[in-house]
## 1
Amino acid sequence: MASFGKYIKTEREKKGWSQTEFGALIKINTPAISRIENDKKRLSVAKLELLAELFKTDYIQLKDRYFADKFAKEAYEYKCSEKVHALAETQSSYIREINSKQGKMKF
Amino acid sequence: MASFGKYIKTEREKKGWSQTEFGALIKINTPAISRIENDKKRLSVAKLELLAELFKTDYIQLKDRYFADKFAKEAYEYKCSEKVHALAETQSSYIREINSKQGKMKF
DNA sequence: GTATTTTTGCTATAATTGGGTAAAATTAAA
DNA sequence: TTTAATTTTACCCAATTATAGCAAAAATAC
């Protein structure tokens, strides 16, 4: 699976939009689009909903893809072991569990 | 598996250190230790190596634990699906693959 | 060779973060 | 219960990180 940036590039091209046209739709200027597509900069999370609409794709899946890419890059940057995502999975289950029992999150 | 903050608290107590004593060793003041143990703030990544020494534990494993906690919290905060970490795993493999083929990372 | 599209450099500003001080609250000990 | 030690809260700040924009260079298409 390609990076999130490459995914955006591919989908944008499928739609036949230039970076400038696409940028106008999602309200980001052309240089920023370029940097996003080349994974030099990250699309802000706030734009994901609009992005899903523009690409006519499922928002939740898009968000998962976005964060998966983010986590993978961070894990790579900090030289985490291959086990880190499995551990994160365990940790997520734990968080879900304690938050279904008691009410709130405290972090 | 408990949060990273609770892990620190547990290990600190095993050593019989007060937050202040532990803080002196790791060079962070007492209130900050409290916030870290209660998952209100995050220990800076730069302290992980020293932390591993103090706790006499493996640095790589500690780092994995730290990032697993970070990823899990972020996934929870943004309401990612349970699939996100598995996706991240796939993404990590992809990054490792392209970086063993070509030389550098560009992100 | 010109026009369109994409990328790079640089800059300004907003947001986040890790940690600091002082003081309040809690817990333990006398 | 008073005092002493420990932990937590409220508020603040410096430094990094992110966002976003313009101008101009580079690349691609026509």
## 2
Amino acid sequence: MSVVLTAARLADEVGFENVTLAAVASRLGVRIPSLYNHVKGLPGLRRELALYGIRELNKRLQGAAIGKESDKAIESMLYAYRSFVRERPGLYQATLHAPDPQDREVQEASQAIIETVLTVLEPFHFKYEDALHVVRGFRSVAHGFVSLEAAGGFGLSLDTDESYRRLISVFLRGLHCSSL
Amino acid sequence: MSVVLTAARLADEVGFENVTLAAVASRLGVRIPSLYNHVKGLPGLRRELALYGIRELNKRLQGAAIGKESDKAIESMLYAYRSFVRERPGLYQATLHAPDPQDREVQEASQAIIETVLTVLEPFHFKYEDALHVVRGFRSVAHGFVSLEAAGGFGLSLDTDESYRRLISVFLRGLHCSSL
DNA sequence: CACGACAAACTAATGTAGTTAGCTTAAAAT
DNA sequence: ATTTTAAGCTAACTACATTAGTTTGTCGTG
């Protein structure tokens, strides 16, 4: 299996910050320097992990919106976002650690996610700029909840499924209700 | 200056993940092993950083709510959250990396933040459990936006101040509007 | 005043990780 | 048949964290 796929699996098991070249090499049954024939050191591996993760996340979001529209589509994508992070926690972490956020490919992949979300917002008929603000809100809600949950940031006492359900509901109501 | 305060400053300058004992020692004009007289190695330093960061954040949130109530108080606290992360990005990162989320002191400090937010939610007269869900939403919105912004996750083209203002507005409208 | 305890520094040594340089080998391309 | 390339390797170097054991000064107490 490729170095990046191996590293992604490893990340999910031990966390992104514990993905070392040593561990990847060991898992591949190979010596550390051999990896340098495939990735540009640890920074290069992390960049490729980030790229892979962003693209995978986008696929999930796209899949979640198929056959749904407006509120249902947004809700479905938010749940897909959470599922992705739960299934691939290490890979998701990697998406947040692109060494250089200016990297062209990374930016393109991120832009693709923005387009995905923009598409499901079309039924709302927002002005383009307004829709971009909403996309940022969407990502904030999804990332915020899901990363706090993954980090164990929520106490144990209360059902997190219900918390997420309600947060989604608040977000959607906020988008619709124009009072205030 | 204390080891933890020095490390916190350093974290803000170079990022939490680049806080090494070597760098802290160098800044204090001391050899690395000397730090072991003050903190329990790197894990111990990180734990103390997390604790310090959580408590500082709580102070900020409390300060922001003084003399405000309901919507204004929540809005003010969300802005304070963002200010804190902008001023002390490394220290904030530390709050998310408590080595052991079960740690008693860490849990108490986190609980104090929850209490702080619960206090400003009192005017809403939520049931206790409902209020807890809202607190999670509050933290998700704040953390989500602010950490994506800090990670350079938002493109450059659009004003982030405006995005945050709107997200807050959506959140508050969502809390009030009961349609759906 | 002397002595012991303690705080806080130090040196030395060990282990792990990332990186680079340079070598080997087998398969693919010319 | 020869060259190129892909993919592995060893060896050596650096940085960092950690532990063990040592030194030194201060401070309180007998």
